[in-house]
TrEMBL record:
Transmembrane domains' residue ranges: 6-23
Protein name: FMN-binding glutamate synthase family protein
Domain of life: Bacteria
Family named by the database record: Belongs to the glutamate synthase family.
One Pfam family from the record: Glu_synthase
Keyword Membrane: yes
Record keywords: Membrane, Transmembrane, Transmembrane helix
Length: 578
C-alpha cells in the first residue's frame, strides 16, 4: 500500500473521532457519563455487556457452592471420568453437611440396583417411577421446541420421568411416539416428490436442515407448522387431535413415550377451554399420556404466576396454550381452584377421580405456618376416610427460578431446600401422616452428594432443573428470559429460529441421559461407602453438620432447631395447633 492510502485512512479516522466526540459531548442527551467523557466513556457499556457472558470464566462460582460441582455436571453429561487431582479447585463453603461413612464399606455391586419410588399406592393407577430422579418442570415455550425434544428423548433413553412444566404436554413430548393412529392424531402426509427433496437435502447437508426444508414444502406458510412432529420413519407429520373423542385415545400410557408428570399451573394450560376454564374432558385426554399430575401453587422465586414474555409466545405456543400470539402470557398469582386449602384438596380429589392416577402439588415454604395447615387438613381427611388429598408434595427451594422470575423475590422468599424438606418431613411425621405422602425435593440439586443429603433429610424423590439444563448444553449465560435484548446463545431457551434450529437435538438427548445415568451410578457409590444397601436406608442420622466456625454437630434435630429458630414459644404454639 502506498503512502497516499495511509494518509487518507488517518484523515478519515480523525474526522470520525472528532464527529463522534462532538456527538457524545454536545448532541446526545441519553448518557450523562458521555458528556464528561466522550468516546472513552463507552468502554463502561462495553465492559458491562461483556461482564455477564464472561462472568463464569473469570470469577469464583458463588451460586452453586463451587465450580467443581458445575464441572461435574458437564463431565457426567459427556460420560467422562469425573475425578479431581490433588484437591478441589474451590472447596465447599461452610456451613455444610457431611456424609457419615461406614467402618466396613460395601462394594458397589452389593448395593441395590433398583431406585424405584411408588406414587399414589391407593389410586387405581399408581405410578412406579423407575428412578428417584426426574427432570423438573420446564415449559415448552420457555424452552425451545428443539430443547424440549432433546429432554424428552433423553428421558426416554434414560428411563426417568420428565415434568411437562406449566406449558402443558405439547406436541414435542410425542417425539419418541411411533404407535399413533389417525383416530386421535392429525396426520399429514406428503408427496413422493417432497420426500425426494428431503433425501437430497439430507445427502448434501444434514438431517435437521433437511427436516426444515421438508416441513416448509409440506406446510408452506402455515403459522402452526411447528406444532407437528415429524415421523422420521414414515416421513409424515402428526400432532394430537384434542378434538377427537376421549374413547379414541389410548387406555394406557404408550410404552414408546417417557414417563410424563403433567403440571397444571394457575393458567391451566393444556387442561383448559378457550375461555380459560378447566376442561375435564381435555384433562382426561392429556392424562392418557401422563403418569401423574402436579399442581403448581408456587415455584422457586416465582411466587407470582408464571411469566412468558410476548416475543416467546410464537403461533405454536399460542396454539398449545389457547392464547394470543406475541403477547405476554402472565399466569394469575393464585391458583383458580385454590382459594382455600379445602377447595384445593377438593380439586385434587376431582383430578384423582378423572385420571385415576396420583395428583400432588408444588409449593414453597417459609416457616411452620406454611406447611402446618396442609398437614392438619390432610390428617382431618384421612381420619374421616376422605382420600381427596395430595399423593405427593413437591417442595421447591426459594432461590432463583428457571427462565423468568422477579429479581426482588430471588433469595428473599422461601426457605432453602434442605431446611424446607427437613421441616415438612418433621411436620408430616408429627401429624402421623408421613407414610401417606411422598416428598419431592427441587432446588439447586446438581450432584450425587446433593441427592444423598436431601434424601437423608426426608425427600423420597428429587426433581432437577439446572443440572439437566447444563447437561442439555446450557452455558449459564443467563439470557433465558430474553427480556435483556439477548437470546440464549445455544438455542436451548429461546424461540429465535436462527439460533434454536442449530441446536443438536440427538447429541444433547444422549448428554441428558448420560447425566441421569451418572447421577445414579455415583449415588450408588456413596451408598456403598456409607455401608448402605438401599436408598431407603438413608435418614437424617447419616449426616453431620459443620458450621461456619468448623464446629461439628451430629444431631440434625438440634441443628435445624437452631437454624430454623424453632424456639419454645413457636413449638408450644405448634403443638397447641395440633
Amino acid at each position: 500500500m502506498d503512502l497516499t492510502f495511509w494518509e487518507d485512512f488517518w484523515i478519515v479516522f480523525v474526522v470520525i473521532m472528532i464527529a463522534w466526540f462532538i456527538h457524545d459531548k454536545y448532541v446526545q442527551r441519553k448518557h450523562q457519563l458521555l458528556v464528561n467523557y466522550p468516546i472513552i466513556g463507552r468502554l463502561r457499556y462495553l465492559f458491562e455487556e461483556a461482564r455477564e457472558p464472561f462472568r463464569q470464566y473469570f470469577g469464583d462460582e458463588k451460586f452453586y457452592e463451587s465450580k467443581d460441582k458445575l464441572d461435574w455436571v458437564y463431565k457426567a453429561a459427556r460420560d467422562l471420568p469425573n475425578y479431581a487431582s490433588f484437591s478441589p479447585s474451590q472447596p465447599l463453603p461452610k456451613p455444610k453437611f457431611m456424609i457419615r461413612h461406614s467402618n466396613i464399606v460395601l462394594n458397589d455391586n452389593e448395593v441395590d440396583e433398583k431406585f424405584e419410588v411408588v406414587f399414589g399406592e391407593n389410586r387405581k393407577k399408581p405410578f412406579k417411577a423407575k428412578s428417584i430422579i426426574a427432570r423438573s418442570a420446564m415449559s415448552d415455550g420457555s424452552i425451545s421446541p428443539e430443547g424440549t425434544r432433546a429432554f424428552v428423548q433423553g428421558a426416554y433413553l434414560g428411563g426417568f420421568p420428565i415434568n411437562s412444566g406449566e406449558g402443558g404436554v405439547t406436541s414435542n413430548f410425542f417425539t419418541t411416539y411411533e404407535s399413533y393412529d389417525s383416530s386421535f392424531m392429525t396426520v399429514v402426509d406428503s408427496s413422493s416428490l417432497n420426500k425426494t427433496f428431503k433425501k437430497v437435502a439430507k445427502f448434501f447437508f444434514n438431517g435437521a436442515l433437511a427436516a426444515d426444508v421438508y416441513r416448509k414444502l409440506v406446510f408452506k406458510n402455515d403459522p402452526e407448522a411447528e406444532t407437528y412432529i415429524l415421523d422420521l420413519k414414515k416421513k409424515q407429520f402428526f400432532r394430537p387431535n384434542w378434538d377427537a373423542p376421549l374413547e379414541n385415545f389410548p387406555k394406557d400410557v404408550p410404552s414408546d413415550m417417557p414417563d410424563i408428570v403433567f403440571q397444571i399451573s394457575s393458567g391451566l394450560y393444556g387442561a383448559r377451554d378457550k375461555a380459560g376454564n378447566f376442561d375435564p374432558n381435555r384433562y382426561q385426554k392429556v392424562m392418557r399420556f401422563c403418569r401423574m399430575t402436579e399442581i403448581k401453587i408456587a415455584q422457586g422465586a416465582k411466587q407470582t404466576g408464571g411469566k412468558l414474555a410476548g416475543h416467546k409466545v410464537t403461533p405454536a405456543i399460542a396454539y398449545y396454550r389457547n392464547v394470543e400470539a406475541y403477547k405476554d402470557v402472565f399466569s394469575p398469582n393464585r391458583f383458580p381452584y385454590g382459594n382455600s386449602i379445602e377447595e384445593l384438596f377438593d380439586f385434587i380429589g376431582e383430578l384423582q377421580k378423572l385420571s385415576e392416577k396420583p395428583v400432588g402439588m408444588k409449593i414453597v415454604i417459609s416457616d411452620l405456618e406454611n406447611i402446618e395447615p396442609y398437614a392438619k387438613e390432610i390428617k382431618r381427611r384421612i381420619d374421616s376416610q376422605n382420600d381427596a388429598y395430595p399423593d405427593f408434595i413437591t417442595i421447591d427451594g426459594g432461590s432463583g427460578g428457571s427462565a423468568t422470575a422477579p429479581l426482588e423475590m430471588m433469595e428473599r422468599v422461601g426457605l432453602e431446600i434442605r431446611d424446607s424438606i427437613y421441616l415438612v418431613d418433621k411436620v408430616l411425621s408429627d401429624y402421623g401422616i408421613r407414610d401417606k405422602i411422598k416428598l419431592v425435593a427441587s432446588g439447586k440439586i446438581l450432584t450425587p452428594d446433593d441427592i444423598v443429603i436431601i434424601m437423608s433429610l426426608g425427600a423420597d424423590f428429587v426433581q432437577i432443573a439446572r443440572g439437566f439444563m447444563m447437561s442439555a448444553g446450557c452455558i449459564r449465560a443467563r439470557y433465558c428470559s430474553g427480556t435483556t435484548g439477548r437470546e440464549c446463545p445455544v438455542g436451548l431457551a429461546t424461540q429465535n429460529k436462527s439460533k434454536r434450529r442449530k441446536y443438536f437435538v440427538f447429541k444433547h438427548a444422549n448428554y441428558v441421559a448420560n447425566y441421569h445415568k451418572n447421577l445414579l451410578k455415583n449415588v450408588k457409590g456413596l451408598l456403598a461407602i456409607m455401608g448402605l444397601k438401599s436408598i431407603s436406608q438413608l435418614n437424617k442420622h447419616r449426616l453431620i453438620f459443620v458450621d461456619k466456625n468448623s464446629r461439628v454437630f451430629d444431631n440434625m434435630d438440634e441443628v435445624f432447631k437452631r437454624k430454623l429458630k424453632i424456639g419454645k414459644d413457636m413449638e408450644d404454639e405448634y403443638h397447641e395447633l395440633r
